[in-house]
Amino acid sequence: MKSQRNKEWLWPPPDQWITVWGTIITAVGAILTSQLFRFFSRLSGLPWIYCYAVALITALVGAALLFYAKLPLYRQREFFTFGCRTLPESRRPYYRCGYFCVIFSAALFCCLFLSRP
User: Fold this and answer.
1) Residues 6+ apart with CB under 8 A from 16
2) In the chain, helix, strand, coil percent, each to 5?
3) Which pLDDT belongs to residue 105?
4) Radius of gyration of the chain (CA)
């Protein structure tokens, strides 16, 4: 039997993903990271307080969403469960959104540590 090569056109070729696109993604990521670092290193005064308030409110909303998602488990006296596998299907989006809010606020708090005193 002859081995047939796949004639489907693949854009971009796999070798370009590593060389060209990897370089572009790395460069864009480095530029965005430097701009973010620059923003938070110069943050002080009232804008710092606003960022702190946003992070605090986001953390509180995330904790409330996590509590709401796990409320059926708390009623069954299951307090130490991890992951959303044991949650009812209708509460899983709240659980995931709660964790997203908590992680976002933790990242924002860490970025606020970069600001000058």
Assistant:
1) none
2) 70, 0, 30
3) 96
4) 23
User: Given CA atoms 60, 62, 65, 70 in this order, what sign does their dihedral have?
Assistant: negative
Of the pLDDT bands very low, low, confident and very high (cuts 50, 70, 90), residue 81 is: confident
Average pLDDT over residues 16-30: 82
User: Do 67 and 95 form a contact (C-beta atoms < 8 A)?
Assistant: no
pLDDT at 94 over 80: yes
Q: Give just the sign of the alpha carbon dihedral 27, 31, 34, 40.
A: negative
pTM for the whole thing? 0.69
Distant-in-sequence, close-in-space partners of 96: CB < 8 Å, separation ≥ 6: 84
- DSSP E strands in the chain: the ranges are none
The CA distance from 86 to 79, in Å, is 11
Instruction: Round to whole Å and give the CA distance between 57 and 110.
Output: 15
